[in-house]
Amino acid sequence: MDQVRTEETPGLDRRDMLKAATASIVGVASMAGLSVHANAEPARHKKWGMVIDLQRCILCRACTIACKQENKTPPGMLYNPVLEEETGEYPKPVRVWFPRPCNHCDKPACMPSCPNDAILKREDGIVYIDPDKCGGAQECIKACPYEVPLFDTGSNYHEGHGAWNEIASPELGLMQVPGKRITANQARKCSFCLHKQDESGNYVSLPACAKTCMGKAIHFGDLNDPNGELQTLLKGRKYMRRLEDKGTAPNVYYLL
Amino acid sequence: MQPDDKKNTLSRKVFLKYAGMGAAAAALPPLVPGLARKALASIKTGQNYEKAQRIFSCCNQCGGQTGIECLVEGGRVVSIRPNNHNPNGFSNISTDFFANIEKEGAVMCPKGNAGLMTLYDPDRLQKPLRRTNPEKGIGIDPKWKEITWDEAYTEIANRLKKLRADSDAHKLLWFSEDHSFTHVQADFMKLFGSPNYSNHSNLCDTARKASFKMVMGDERPLMDAIQSKYILLFGWNPLSATKWAFLPRLMTRARENGAKLVVVDPNFSYTANKADEWVPIRPSTDGALALAMAHVIIRDKLYDETFIKEWTAGFDQFAAYVQDKTPQWAETITTVPAKTIEKIAHDFATTKPSLADVWSGPGQHCNAVQGGRAIACLNALTGSYDRPGTMVSPEKKGNKHIEWSADDTAAATLRMDRFDGLKSYPFGHKSGVYCESFARLAEGKGPYKPKMGIVVFQNLLMSVPGTKTVEAALKSLEFLVVNDTCLSETAQLADIVVPGTTYLERYDLNGHWVTWPVLGLRQPVVAPLFGQPTEYEFVAELGRRLGLKDKDGVEIFKMGHVSHQPIEDKKAWYEEWLSKELLEGEPKISLDELKALPGATWMSKTGTTYEKYAKPVSEEKVKAAITEGNVLFSKKKDGTKDKQIGILKDGKAVTGFQTPSGKVELFNAKLAEKKDADGVPVDPLPVYKPRQWAPDGQFPLYLINWKQASHTHSRSQNNAWLVEIGPNNPLLMNAATAAKMGLKDGDAVWVESKYGKMKSTLKVTAGIHPEVVGSQHGFGHWALGKIANGRGSFDGGLRPTKADPISGQALHKECCVKVSKA
Lengths: 256, 822
Fold this sequence. Notes:
Chain A is an alpha+beta fold and about 260 residues long. Helices cover about 20% and strands about 20% of the residues of chain A. Chain A is globular and about 50 Å long. Classes of the chains: A alpha+beta (about 260), B alpha/beta (about 800).
C-alpha cells in the first residue's frame, strides 16, 4: 500500500517525502506531456476504501473520538459511530458491533437526492458534500440507507469559553466560529479525511480513525490496487458489505 | 488468521440482521470506478495542521501514560496523535515493537483522543478559592471567595508552619494521584516531617500486587499476550480497561496467532466477548476455581515437572492442600460446571505457552490476596513465569528517586507511626491504606488526631468506598487543601482549593509498563491556561515558604540539583530536578537530551529479556555479597544486608525470584508468623475463604462495577466528547433475574444495600451472571462540572470504607444489594 503513509514519525518522513515527491514529479511531468514511467506501472485511478476487521475491533470507540478530534464536529455529531447489538441467551450471549464510517458508495443514494447537486463522487471514490453548494435540504439524510449524513444545526461546544472556538477544523479549512461556521444548517459526513490528501492525491497520513485504531482493525487504502493491502485482505477472508440489496455498492468492507 | 466457521456463521447471521442485509455474498469490488469523473477543483486538500509545532509527550487521561504527539498552532493544542516512538501505544515486548511499529504505527484510546476537551474544559477551576461558610458537608454551599495565589500560599504555609512549630507535622495527611510528580510530594512530606504520604494505588490493584509478590516476588508481572497460546483471565478486561494502549492490539493479535482466550468474569466484558469461552462466575470465588484447576493439573500430572523441581518451593504441601479441592467442590462455590473446570485446567496445562492473569475483578474483595495467589500458583504449575508467552517480570529501570535525609526537626515527627496503620497490613503497599485512614478519621480512632490534609488530583469522595465515612473523615480535619483541575466533590469540602494543571501543561517522567526499560517524557505542550503554577511548583513554593531543608542544610525546593545554585524560577528548578533523576538513573542523560530523543522517549537497548531468574550473578557481586542460607544479598555502605540479588542453586549463584526462598513459592510456612490487619495469621497456603459479605434474603444480589474504554475512574465524566460515547452507566441485570423480579429494560430502579442506595436505570442483558448486578464506576457526579453532574449513578455510598486486611486494597466490589422498581 504505497499510497498511504502509515506514520508521521520523523524517521519515516524523509522516505515518505521522497515517495510523495516522486509522485508529484510524475504528476507534473504527465501534465507537461512528458512520458515518465518510473516502474512502467500502468496508470490507474485510485479508489479509496476501507476494510474493517471485525475480529480486531474491540468496541473502544477510539475511532469515533479520533474523528471528532480531527474534524472538530459539533455536539452529538459522530461521523464514525460504532453500532452495537446484543442477542443470545445466558450463558451464551452474542454481542456484535461495527464502526460505521461513510461507505463512499459507487452508487451513492445520497448523490441523486440532492436538489443542489452538492454531493460529488470524486474520481478517487470519495463521496463529498461540497459546503459551498449544500443548501441544507436534508434530502441526502433521508436518502442514505446507512444514516450517514447528519445535519449541522450550527451548535457548538463551550459557547463563551473561547478556546474551543478558536481551533481550526482542517476538514473545513476555516475557523469554527459559532453561528458563522460554513456548514451550519448543512449536511455533513465522513470524507475519509480528504484534507489529509496531498496535491497528488495521496494521503500524508491515515484518516484519523484508521490511525488511532487500538486493535488496528481499520485498514484504509486503494481498492483499485489488485496487490494492495485491501485486496489482499479481501482475498484471504470472508467479508461483507452493508445492505447490498440497496444497490449502493459500498466501499467499506467488513471482515468477519 | 481465518476465524473458525462456526463463529463466523453466528456473527454473520446477527450482523446481517443488524445491517438489514440480504444474504447476497459480496463480490470483489470492480477495479475500475464505475462513475464518470467529476473534477473538484474547489476542494482544498493538504490541510493537515502542517504549520503546527509538534511536541512529543505522554498522555495522562488515565494512569496509562501512552505516548502522544501534540500539535500546537497559535498557542492552542489543535490535535493529539499517537507517538510512534513510545511502545506504550504499541507493544509491551521489544521484538514486536521494533519489528512492526514502522509498518503499523502506534495507537491511542478514546480518552487520549479527547484530551483537548479536558484541557479546554470550561468548568476548569481558574483561581484559588477560599471557603467562607464554616459549615461543611455534601450539598452545603462552601460560599467560595476568590483569593490571590499569594493569599492561598500564605494561609496554607501558615497552617503548615504552625503544625511544625507545635511538633505536629505528622498530623498532616497527603493524598495524591500515583503516576504524576509523586517524588516531589513524597519528598515534601519527608522534609516537612510527616510519614503520611499516600497515593492512589491502594484504590486499584494492591491485592494483585500482594498475590504475585507472595508467589513469584514481583509486584507486577505483565502478560506477554502476543506470544502466548493460551490466555486465561480472571476478572480482567484488557480490551476495555485499556490503561496501556497496547493491550487491544496484543490481545487481538494473540487470537490471530492461534491463542485460545478464556475469560472468567461475572460480567460478559468486551474481552469475554472476544474470547473462545466466557466463564461466568460468582464474584470473589475465583480463588476456588483456580484451586480446583490446580487439583486437576496435579491429579493428572499435567504440570511442568522440571520447573516445579528446579524453580518452585512448597509443591508437596500445595499438592496436599488441593487434593480435595475437586471441580465438584469448586462448582458449588463458583457456579462454574465441574466439566468446564476440568476442560480449562487441561487446556491451560497442555497448551504452551500459557498464562493466567488476574486483576481488579477478584482483586477488590476481602479474600482477594489469597484468591489471586491461587491464580498466580497456576502459572507456577505450568512454568508460566518470565518465559515468552507467559507472565513476564518487567525490567523497571528509569529515573532515580533521589533520597534526601530529613533534618532533625522533621525526623522527630517523621518517625511517628503512619496514621493509616500501614504496618499492620503484612503485604501493604507504600501507597498506604486510604480506607483505614478515612475510617479512623471518621471514628476518631488511630494513633493521633490528624489536623490537616492536602489532596492533589484525587476525588476521594467518589473514589473511596463509603461516601458518608469519607465525608465525615474530611470534615474532621481542621484544614483541608485541594489542588485539582475542577471543583470536584472532594474540593467542595476544602477550606482552600487551588487550580491544578492538566497533563498538557506540565512535566513528568513516566517509567512505562512494558517489559524492558522505557521512559517517556511528559512535557508542557502549552503553558498552564490560567497562569496557575503546576502541582510541583505549588509544592516547591510551599517548601520554600517553609524553608524546608535536608539534613545537610540544603534548601531542596530551591537549590538547583544539577547547577548547585539556588534557582528562583520554579519551572527551571524542576527541570533540574528531573535532569538529576535522569542523570543518576538508568538513562544517564539530561532533561534536554531526553526531549531531543525521538518521541521524547528513552529506552534501554537490551530489549525484553526472559528467564532472568536463571541468569548467573556475577562473580564480583557474589564475592561482595552476604549469604544467608542459600540466599545472597548485596551490602549497604555500612556493611549491613541490602537487596536480595540471588540464590545458590546447585552450587552456582543465579538471580532466582525475589521471594524469601528465591524460588516460586506455592507454600511458605513463615507467612503464618505474619498477622493481617484483623489479627489473623496469614495462611501459608493460598487457602480459599469466602468473602465476609454474602447475599442474604434481604440483599440477595452481588453488586460489582467495572471500567469501559470511554472513561477513567470518576474523573472523565465532564469531558464533552467522552460523554457522547459513554453517556451514563445503567445497571446491568440478567434477563432471567429481571423476569423473575418483574423488571424490564429501561426501568428506573432503586439499588439498595445496608449502607445506602442509588437510583439507576436498568439494562437487561444475557451478559451477566444471574446472581449479579453491576455498572460502570465513575458516574453520578454532583459537583465536578455541568456535563458530569446528574449523569448516571454513583455506587460509592453502597459500601463501607473497608480495606482487604492483607494488602490494604479498597474493597470496591464487596457489596450486596436489593433492586426494586423506583
